[in-house]
């Protein structure tokens, strides 16, 4: 295992501290329990919190800031945050209008956010993200997993909260964005959890894992490596089947890298996916290409599609100022 | 070799097309000869062009847009762009105030930009970037190599050109930014050029290459893998020796990933480097952490320091709107 590392025990805390140092104008760090929140004083509106295991950076800490999250709670690598992190973050960012928690559908995350909600004396609601169409349940959760579509939910909810939507409007909107979003990924290599110091799964020198999870969970099947054109087909087919979009429907296309795949390849995937979706009769209104929901150093990528309407497009386009998403 | 790829012959053109598709509001594509330029009409000011071999994305195509480059000419992977690309791009973006070419110091790039300058009937000037303090000359060039500091030169010159600096002011400024900038990198793994389909260099499972070039050129020496703390020391020492900054000097710190190293590790490096520079008596005013000057899928990173004054800080802070840098 070759990584930039001092000790696996300190990696998450040190890395989060390094993020906050680089963005001192935007972010504040709470060291214990660990969370990141906006530096600016809270306004009277719904506060948005997310969190989950580390190793998916920039998700979620990189999306704290005006127009997106109020706080993010990073757990240890691929491990849910503890309830005390979530409770402390919620208390810090609550502005009297309630706290909305955006949770990827993993058993550990769901449990921690539920316990935190039970412990909190503020109005809380939860949006569960389960955009991964690869498998119906996996080693980490019953039901579909939450993956790269989480960013889309966080961005759109951030805009809605900023515009004054109340807690229940935010919750309903989050459910709507989630149900309009579908993702699927593919791995070329495994990730390596620092503490384990060994690949999460074995994969042959010419194999790919189609439908992989963002923790290296098994997907739908193994294949021999295929040309990019064919890999895009394997990813888009289940996504399009899930969303069942009418011809002419407007969509957002998010090409997400898993950490070890360079941008030159992600842009190739974007070209192929864009052409394929246009042939399918869809109208791509917005694109996002880059490493956003990573899996440590895994080589691979996922495609995410969100069906848009005027409201969702407006929420996507609303200003955002975070370390890793800004316009 | 596992990559997302259709054919190595089409990779660059397809990837650049994918980039432009994702940023149709900002960028325009010229397919043949290949270059990317801003979509908006040119204004009466100095036009900035850069370019170089592909495989370093987002450099340079990801930095085209208001406040930074007017055009970028991507060569084949790790291969200089041809003069006809540069000539065509210069003609497209020249607004009657001259064209400034920002060139990384590699023999091939220098030759192509020189031939293009000779062919062009517009005022041209060149800024040569050679920020890599690792080696005095290498397999690809006499003299120091141009690496991640190129982004700093492009950003500051973009702001100056936008503010109306003339061609010779821009050239002088570029030389000043370059001389105030020093970088050094380290590789944990090799990159793989798609056409070669094999690693550029062999490196053992617990070795690192200190001072590596962004094409996998040899650095200063091999070492066994060290803790991140020690690696940061190995990179900062030559940088600080080169710049010889007085205590209290203000600097920009850029932690750059080479493509295969995830953000969680880059932020760890940032924390360590930030602490080390503070102990050294420097005042870090700005940070940039991410994969900006990559080397395909190489795992590794570089540190870049630019000594600031009020003018350079203002140019760094000026608004920028490109695919991969925006504020």
Automatic annotation (TrEMBL), chains A, B:
Task: Quote the EC number.
Answer: 2.7.1.121
Where does the secretion signal sit in this chain?
Answer: none
Gene3D superfamilies associated with the record: Dihydroxyacetone kinase, domain 1, Dihydroxyacetone kinase, domain 2
Supply the enzyme class, top level.
transferase
Membrane-traversing stretches = none
InterPro entries, alphabetized: DhaK_1 (IPR012736), DhaK_dom (IPR004006), Dihydroxyacetone_Kinase (IPR050861)
The protein's matches in Pfam families, at most eight in alphabetical order, are given as: Dak1
| PROSITE patterns found in the cross-reference section | DHAK
Record-annotated DhaK domain positions: 7-327
Q: Which UniProt keywords apply?
A: Kinase, Transferase
Q: Name one GO molecular function term.
A: phosphoenolpyruvate-glycerone phosphotransferase activity
This chain's protein is named Dihydroxyacetone kinase subunit DhaK
């Amino acid at each position: 295992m070759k990584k930039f590392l001092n000790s696996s025990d300190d990696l998450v805390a040190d890395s989060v501290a390094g993020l906050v140092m680089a963005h001192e104008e935007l972010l504040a760090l709470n060291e214990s329990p660990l969370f990141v929140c906006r530096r600016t004083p809270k306004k009277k509106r719904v506060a948005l919190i997310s969190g989950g295991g580390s190793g998916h950076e920039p998700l979620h800490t990189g999306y704290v800031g005006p127009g997106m999250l109020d706080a993010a709670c990073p757990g240890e690598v691929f491990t849910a945050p503890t309830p005390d992190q979530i409770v402390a973050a919620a208390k810090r960012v609550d502005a009297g209008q309630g706290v909305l928690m955006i949770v990827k559908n993993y058993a550990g995350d769901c449990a921690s956010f539920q316990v935190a909600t039970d412990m909190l004396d503020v109005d809380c609601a939860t949006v569960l993200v389960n955009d991964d169409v690869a498998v119906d349940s996996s080693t980490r959760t019953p039901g579909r997993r939450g993956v790269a579509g989480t960013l889309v939910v966080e961005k759109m909810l951030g805009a809605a909260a900023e515009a004054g939507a109340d807690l229940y409007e935010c919750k309903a909107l989050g459910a709507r964005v989630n149900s309009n979003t579908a993702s699927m990924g593919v791995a070329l290599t495994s990730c390596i959890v620092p503490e384990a110091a060994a690949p999460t799964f074995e994969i042959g020198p010419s194999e790919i894992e189609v439908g992989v999870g963002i923790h290296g969970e098994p997907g739908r099947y193994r294949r021999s490596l295929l040309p990019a054109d064919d890999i895009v087909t394997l990813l888009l087919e289940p996504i399009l089947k899930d969303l069942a979009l009418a011809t002419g429907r407007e969509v957002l296309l998010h090409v997400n890298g898993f950490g070890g795949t360079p941008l030159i390849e992600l842009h190739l995937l974007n070209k192929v996916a864009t052409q394929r979706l246009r042939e399918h009769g869809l109208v791509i209104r917005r694109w996002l290409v880059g490493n956003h929901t990573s899996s440590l150093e895994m080589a691979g990528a996922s495609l995410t599609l969100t069906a848009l309407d005027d409201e969702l497009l407006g929420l996507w386009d609303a200003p955002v100022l975070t370390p890793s998403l800004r316009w």
